[in-house]
């Protein structure tokens, strides 16, 4: 038999459940739209650093998992720096691991390259552009990627965060885990080197 | 065009090129990214459910302990009664270090104090000197 008290308790509990449900749903939707907004850029940053599509996808996936599990309860304005911080840590971890097992890795990638398809196939789908535009974008993208890959990892990532993602010196320093002075130095060296390499494309 | 403007122009071109590369990503890469995103978002729910499961387990463990304690109280009431009979006064006597006979004869000393002041004085002296008062016949 339902007494007045038990009825009000049940109603309150249901209201709390509904509130929690809506809170969770809106948080999930917010996180979904946030991840949607950064995932492609993150993938490209990882791809430029690793030169490997699968590894880059793994890095971005790990970053997303860590972000959702650990930091989805944090305020929304902190999500972006936290996401890039995790991404940079993952890229650095990948680099360290690769250097540790360099011979083994070289052997595996060498073996894989024999069987893998033409690397040009994995380039951007440019079917919506005119042939001239496609050729230009393909050329400049390839040249830019190659130029960026000649930079040391720190310079490369600082340049991408500052020049592409438009992050401030302070935010970049926080994300990269170094001083603001280092960020300025890395950035100016990166710009100088890239301008030299890409003189033929953008004088 | 000065050097700063040239640099600005260069950075603008780089930005445009990188944006174009993002907008023209391979369809397969886009779908794999979307799949990763969905998996990550699902993992949040799973993570929370795991937390709730641990909470339920801890709660069940606590409830079991309470049940065991209650069963002990209900099955062995005499032990608990013995413990319940022990008062703070008893504990004070046990821990005072005084001879137990002194407390046993306490009524006699109280009676003596009402009868005669000197007798009480004598009895007190006996107690403090020997630590034990001899039982006296009335």
Which regions of chain B have little confidence, pLDDT < 50, spanning 5+ residues?
Answer: none
Q: Name the shape of chain B in a single word.
A: elongated
Shape of chain A: elongated
Tell me the strand percentage band of chain A: under 5%
Tell me roughly what share of residues is in helical segments of chain B.
over 70%
Q: List the secondary-structure elements of chain A in sequence, H or E.
A: HHHHHHHH
Number of beta strands of chain B: 0
| Helix/strand structural class of chain B | mainly alpha
CATH topology of the largest domain in chain A: Rna Polymerase Sigma Factor, Chain: A
Largest sheet of chain A: none
Determine the strand fraction of chain B and express it as a percent band: under 5%
The SSE string of chain B, one letter per element, is HHHHHHH
Q: How does this structure look, described?
A:
Chain A is mainly α. In chain A, 79% of the residues lie in helices and 0% in strands. Chain A is built from eight helices and no strands. The longest helix of chain A has 47 residues, at 4-50. Chain B is an all-alpha fold and 138 residues long. Chain B has seven helices and no strands. Chain B has helices spanning 3-23, 27-75, 77-85, 88-96, 100-104, 106-115, 117-130. The chains are: A mainly alpha (203), B mainly alpha (138). Chain A binds chain B through residues 28, 31-32, 35-36, 39-41, 43-44, 53, 57, 60-61, 64-65, 67-69, 72, 122-126, 128-129, 137, 140-141, 144-145, 160, 163-164, 191, 194-195, 198, 201-203, and chain B through 6-7, 9-11, 13-15, 17-18, 20-22, 24-27, 29-30, 32-33, 36-37, 39-41, 43-44, 47.
